[in-house]
Specification:
This protein is α+β, with helices and mostly antiparallel strands. It is built from six helices and nine strands. The chain has a five-stranded mixed beta barrel. Helix 1 packs across helix 4, helix 2 packs across helix 3 and helix 5 packs antiparallel against helix 6. The longest helix is centred in the middle third of the chain and has 25 residues.
């Protein structure tokens, strides 16, 4: 995705070095349609510059600060030296993230999705989250609820969430479910204890996963899983419940899983 229009003064932009002259460097802006800027030789690097080519090379990706925009003369003045290392790193990462998000859009809606639909979905994510990438990330973490503030169709939300959960790597996600443990038999208490220990994994949980089972109110227990990604978290939640169900087999007890909490008060 490339933006139409013009960048704002003070904005950081990603560009590729197209031409190098003694008086400066021409930069093709990667994020804007058909936009090109000039870095005057005095804005390439601090101090005296003997040879511009000692500092940049053709085809190099750079981060520039927009100094001035003159739409009438189709001119964009840029600076490389005004961008520090931290700003450069963050901007490049943001740019790479948006490239990933652009690919995810194609995965979600197909390579032949129309420009109108792309623009509609992209603008909704930009308005709500500030970037398309952040929209996908929030959809991966929180599911459809993350997109409640958008004006997207239910089918579009479903496609976004499915694609996000299959492709987005986030620092961690937390998923929660509930299981009702009942065992009216004479050894019911011991049976429930065994089911709880099984649900907690008996110490056999991957190091990158945090799993805990807490009492909510008879007969309800909360299972909370924290993991590096949604797929792992969901798999561990399902395994936890499955272990509890297996522990209840052969007894008078039962283990019933549900997503929403049933008990009113903890």
């Amino acid at each position: 995705m490339k933006y139409s229009g013009w960048p704002d003064t003070g904005e950081l932009v990603v560009g590729k070095v197209d031409e190098i002259e003694d008086f400066g460097v021409f930069i093709d802006l990667e994020e804007y349609e058909d936009k090109r800027g000039l870095v005057h030789v005095s804005e390439v690097a601090s101090g005296w510059i003997k040879n511009v080519r000692d500092h940049v090379s053709t085809g190099q990706t750079v981060v520039c600060k927009v100094l001035d925009v003159d739409e009438g003369s189709q001119q964009i003045d840029l600076s490389i030296k005004d961008v520090n290392e931290h700003q450069h790193s963050d901007k490049i990462q943001d740019w790479k993230n948006e490239q990933k998000a652009d690919k995810w859009m194609s995965l979600a809606f197909g390579e032949d999705m129309g420009d109108e639909q792309y623009t509609h979905v992209a603008n909704e994510l930009l308005a709500e989250f500030g970037s398309i990438y952040d929209g996908f990330e929030q959809a991966a973490i929180h599911g459809p609820e993350a997109l409640d503030g958008t004006d997207l169709e239910d089918e579009e939300v479903e496609q976004l969430v499915e694609t996000a959960r299959e492709n987005v790597s986030v620092p961690y996600v937390t998923v929660t479910g509930y299981v009702d443990l009942r065992n009216p038999g004479k050894d019911g208490v011991d049976g429930i204890k065994a089911a709880l220990e099984a649900a907690e994994g008996n110490g056999d949980i991957p190091d990158e996963v945090e799993l805990d089972v807490t009492y909510v109110g008879a007969p309800e227990y909360r299972v909370r899983v924290k993991a590096p990604n949604y797929k792992t978290a969901e798999a561990q939640l399902e395994e936890s419940v499955r272990r509890a169900e297996v522990a209840m087999e052969g007894t008078d007890g039962s283990a019933d899983f549900h997503r929403e909490r049933h008990t009113d008060d903890e």
